[in-house]
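User: Hi! I'm working on a homework problem where we have to compare a predicted structure to a textbook description. Could you give me the structure for the chain below?
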Amino acid sequence: MPNQKNQESVKKLEEKIKENPNLVVTNYQGLTTPELNELRSKLKPVGCEYNIVKNTLTRISLKNAGLEDFTKYFTGPTAVAFQKGDAASLAKIVVEFSKSNEKLKIIAGFLAGKILSDKEIKVLATLPSREVLITKVAISLNAPLQNLATVLNAPLQKLAMVLKSLEQKQAKA
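Assistant: Happy to help. Predicted structure tokens:
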């Protein structure tokens, strides 16, 4: 029979997993406490938490949350980054930090409802942010309308220029 403390830990982890749809699992072995705190400080502005977890309790929490396929990634010294917001920003920060601190190994991720390998997370980190992509789409959608407005406006502009030149001729005469 599990003790009360472990049951509470499982319940808290399960709630955290349900509240935060984006998870990145890492192996933190060899990182010092100041290095872990540095990673946490980089993740905090994007609404992310980075916690060292107990694998057994996390596996139970994942099963309870319906993510049984994701449990196989929890072996060895494991820490998880939890986030509610933009999955790309989480991936960028973790990948960038792992490049400067080779001791941090990205194992896998559960981002936007899909299990991703470490390679897929690295690819996601190379993509532009959500805001940049939305801006590009908006510009792409606006360009044809802007061109149409220019084409439709051109005859009116030419007519106005002809009328103005006629007015200037009549004023001289």
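For your comparison, note the following. The beta strands are 22-27, 48-53, 78-83, 105-111, 114-117. The helical segments are 4-19, 33-43, 55-64, 87-100, 118-126, 130-172. Good luck with the assignment!
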